[in-house]
Amino acid sequence: MRSQLDQPPADPPAGSGATTASVSYHLPAQALSGAVTTYYLVKVTGPGTVRDQIFPEWPNYRLILSGDWEAKFPDVDVEPVPVDGVTGTLERAVWVTGSAGLMVGVGLMPQGWARFTAQSVDGFTNRMRPLADALGPASDEMHRRLVAAAAEGEDAIFAVLDEMLLSLLTDAPEAALVADAHAALQDPQVQTVSDWADALGLSSRQLERFSPRYFGLPPKRLLRRQRLLRTLATMREADGGTWSQALDGQFTDQAHFIHEFNYYMGTSPKAYLARPQPIMADAWKRRKALLGSPVQVLQPPTWTGK
User: Fold this and answer.
1) Residue 291's closest CA among 252, 233, 208, 243?
2) What CA–CA distance (Å, rounded) separates 174 from 123?
3) Residue 19: inside a domain, yes or no?
4) CB atoms inside a 10 Å sphere around CB 123
5) What is the CATH classification number for the domain harbouring 142?
6) pTM for this structure?
7) Where are the beta strands (DSSP E) in the chain?
8) Is residue 305 included in any domain, yes or no?
């Protein structure tokens, strides 16, 4: 049976060809750099809608200032995106559809999640919930202030985010270990659960308990996702038709990679590269230009600027 991941929402209405999306990125205040990967704005213009897939990712806050969005998670029906929402760790790609308007996003580091809420991230994994479930009453104030700031421009939006997130930031004692675990996960030489546990001075059993609480998924599934996204990043940069030369060494062969790619992205590598990407193509280019890392999951935890 084909996964529902490879069956995107219905095509946008006729006439939506003039509808376009643009993405811009902005760095948070320095004090937030260990907690927040980046801020971003997604602006949709035109009479119809745009549709694209977002990559598997770490948690994100998303606040819709105008327009409407829908999301289709794997194996569930299309659902509306709340005006102030939060997604936890995403293991697989998610289809999104948006109409004319403006959405503000906050990408989190794994350790950032622990510094903004005491809740376990695995309660938000692979799903979308109201932002109040993570931040409480501050979510309503954040949305209200961002709507007002939008009339003043991007700098005003980012200033609101800096002020509010700095007021919510805590010195969670576990954040240091989460950051160390995040750094080890980024290492291509860390290939097994025992490798990852050894790098942290933990037993595999301890890591199995720790990982869902702070990363949203068991360690083996995180390592598998990391491997796929490393190769995805390399193949997108490869010349046309040469993606097969970009395979991570942990894939046994092309068939293994294609199987994994279908699981995470819901299609073959060839079909994925050939189809239009009205949101993510721009996001990839702009994120890489600002951050060096084109994918949130591949951004190092100690990153402080390109």
Assistant:
1) 233
2) 18
3) yes
4) 14
5) 2.60.120.10
6) 0.91
7) 20-26, 36-54, 60-66, 69-72, 79-80, 84-87, 94-108, 128-130
8) no
